[in-house]
Structure formats: C-alpha cells, structure tokens
Amino acid sequence: MKLPIERARTLADARLIGPSPLPCRCGAPRHAHRGQKRSGGHPATSCARYRRDPADVLLERAQAAAHNRLGDDLAASERTGRRRRSRRPKKPGQWSIGASDTSSCRRAIWYRENPPPGYTPAPVDRRAARAGTLIHDSVSRRRRALYPWRLYEQSVTLPGLDRPSRYDEYDPVTGVLYDYKTAGDWKWALVGDDGPPETEWDQTQLYALALHLAGERVTEVRIVYFERKSGADEEFARPFDEQAARRALGRLTAIATALDLGTALPRDRSGPSTDVICKRFCPARTDCWSMAEAQAAGRSPESYTLVTDRSDVEWALGEYDRHRAAKSAAEKAQNVAKALLDGVQPDTYGDYEYVRTAGRLKDPEPDHQGRVRQLEAFWDNPPNERPALHELDYPTKRTRTSGSTQVRRVRAAKRGDPPACGRR
Predict the structure, then answer these.
(1) Do 222 and 235 touch, CB atoms closer than 8 A?
(2) Dist CA 272 CA 279 (whole Å)
(3) Does residue 78 form part of some domain?
(4) Which residues have a Cβ under 8 Å from the Cβ of 231 and sit 6 or more positions away?
(5) Residues 125, 240: one domain?
C-alpha cells in the first residue's frame, strides 16, 4: 500500500487545475490512447490497452473523502451493508415478524409488512441508531475476546414466527442470556426511574424461550444498558420465565394472524405531536397520521385523524378536562408533601434522594444600568469628542438562578426492590 500512496502524492503534486487526465498504468493520459472509446493501446509506451492507474483512483477517492462528514460516511456504510427488501405485497404466512417487534407499534408493523398502494416511507433520523450500532459492535468484539466460550449474535427461531431472531450473547455454562441496549438522555432517565420497559423484557424472554425450545439451558436473562453520553452502564436481571415468554409470543403470532386476515392493526402511540418515536423515527408517520392533509386543513395530525365528528370532539374535551382536574389535584398534593420536607437535611432516604441543586448562570441579557454608566463616562466630553452610539457595545450581564431542593428516585439498578414496571 505504501507504493500506491507515494505515487498518489506524486500525482497530486503534479496535477494542474482542471479535471484529471485519467492516466493509464503506462503513465500516458487516457485521451492519448487509441480507439473511439480511448481504450486501446499507446505505442509510445508499448501499452497494449488502457488500464487506469490505481494511484490516480486512490488520489480521487482521497480527495473526495476529505470533504465527507463522519455521519455521511456512517450512513453510506449502512446503505451498502443493508439488505434490500422486496416491497411487493406478501402472501399470508410470509410476514417478517421477530422478537424485536415486541417494542414496535402494531400499525408500523402493518405498514412495513403490508403497505397500502401508493405508500412511500418517510425519512427517519438514524443517527442515534448508528451510534448505538457502533457501540454494540465494539462491546460484542471485546466480550468475544474476554469470554470465548460464550455464543454471540446467533440466530434462533420461534414457533409461529417466520423471521429468525438474533440474540446478543449467551453463556451455555451458566445459562445466562444477555441483551445490550444503548441509551440517550431520555431513555437513560426513563431506565433510571423505572428500569427496562416490559416490552424489552418480553424481547429478551423470547430469545431465552427459543434457546429453551432448542434444548439449551437458560436460567436468567439480563439487559445491559450503556449510556452513549457518559459511558456509564447498568445491568438488570430476571429469572427466565417461560410463561411470560409464551404470552409475548402469543401477542406476536396474533399480529401475524391479523395480517393473514387482512385486518388493519391499531396504533400504539399517541402521534407525531407528542411522541418523539412517531415524529422522528417512524417511516409510516406521514401516511399513518395524514400529516400533509392535516397541515392543509390547519389541524394537528392527531386531531385530523382521530377527531372526525361532534361526538369525537366531545370525547376529546372530556379527556382534556379529566386530565386537567387530575393535574390540579396532583399539584395540590405535591405542595402538601413539599411543606412536610421544609427544613429536612438533604440526604438519601431509602429509594429517594433529597438534594440541593446549585443555581446556574442565565443567558446574557442587556445591562441597562451599565449602559447609563457607560454614557455618563462621556457626558463631560465636548460633543465632537463623544463616540457615536452605534460604536459603543451595549453592556450585558449574567445573573444566576437561585438553587432549589429536588426529590429524585435512586436509580432503579441500585435499589433493593425491583422497579415498579418490572412487577407483574
């Protein structure tokens, strides 16, 4: 590789402004070769046919790569390695449903597996997914080196589902199954309060069920979270629960049965106005929530799609009023509890932390008093010696907010009892 690099440097130093002459291996430019397509020989160099110089190809790629961003490179790599899936309508029994669909919206699965005529997927934000894939691959590679007897990224099959599922890591000696998850700020905070959601436990239990049905020994399932921002990790464990896994499998096979019958599956999320998954990560959102028609009508996608007559409006008003009353009652109860904590020493009490937060600096804002002092400094000068107002920078100041006491829950991974959402 060293020789082509040196030759590419030489070509770059000798290159004039303009397009590349596309030199051949013989050194002569392409236009000097014979033939209508300039693919023939070059007598002066005893070249039999044109073959582009690899060093020139390397130079072209290096110059193009110098302007590529990392995110663009990751996206291009993902497109190259992604298997193209047929968009033709599938026949009953051909639905591609696997264990990972436990966390998917049923309507999104319906669009993915049986798209209506004229459906075009909307672009989705895949940056977090790419970062998660990089971390996942790095973790798997290092764990392989540390624990070579474990099995990694193996395909397993579940009865009633046509798509093989792939687990992350399985130890056949201890019978422990591991599933890796990466988390951003929002997901890390959610996991800290409530632990893994039940849909993720179901996914891991399904992997364990597939191994169990294959005759393998499974004693425990674990979900390992890795925070992308800080590099912190937390691990949650549960015993293998065959009944819970079979219930999750029943829900997935029910989705496949509904697709066989041609039944449109319901939505499981609130919509792009209030749900970040719908807004940024669902390719079906434009069609599912009639976003273009809703914008033209001056309504939210949820209102345009779900509120179609006066009875729907009455239902929506009732929902709003009910939640408003619940919010008011909750705020009153919170104020009563806050008074009980007045004067309590900040510390950790069981599953809760009572902490005092420091104030923060606000954004710069105009300093009107500083402006007055600035102008007074030039007041006694003759008018012709005073600077113009536009030449003086308007003074700014930054103030600090006052600190406050906050009640936080100890992170679920550090509590003695299992999180609330983990109980059945």
Answers:
(1) yes
(2) 4
(3) no
(4) none
(5) yes
Measured in degrees and rounded to the nearest 5, phi and psi for residue 149 equal -80, -10
Mean predicted confidence (pLDDT) in 104-125: 91
Instruction: Note if the pTM is more than 0.85.
Output: no
pLDDT in tens, 235-267: 999 999 999 999 999 999 999 999 999 898 999
Tell me which DSSP letter residue 392 carries: S
Long-range contacts of 231-235 (CB under 8 A, 24+ apart): 232/188, 234/191, 234/192, 234/411, 234/412, 234/413, 235/413
pLDDT of the residue at 112 = 92
Number of domains in the chain: 5
Domain assignment present for 412: no
Domain residue limits at 141: 99-260
Q: 321 vs 270, 303, 317, 324, 328, CA distance in Å? A: 18, 17, 6, 5, 11
Same domain, yes or no, for 57 and 192? no
Q: Which long-range contacts (CB under 8 A, 24 or more apart) does 83-92 make?
A: 87/115, 89/114, 89/115, 90/114, 92/259, 92/260
- For 314, what's the count of Cα atoms within 13 Å in the CB-facing half-sphere? 3
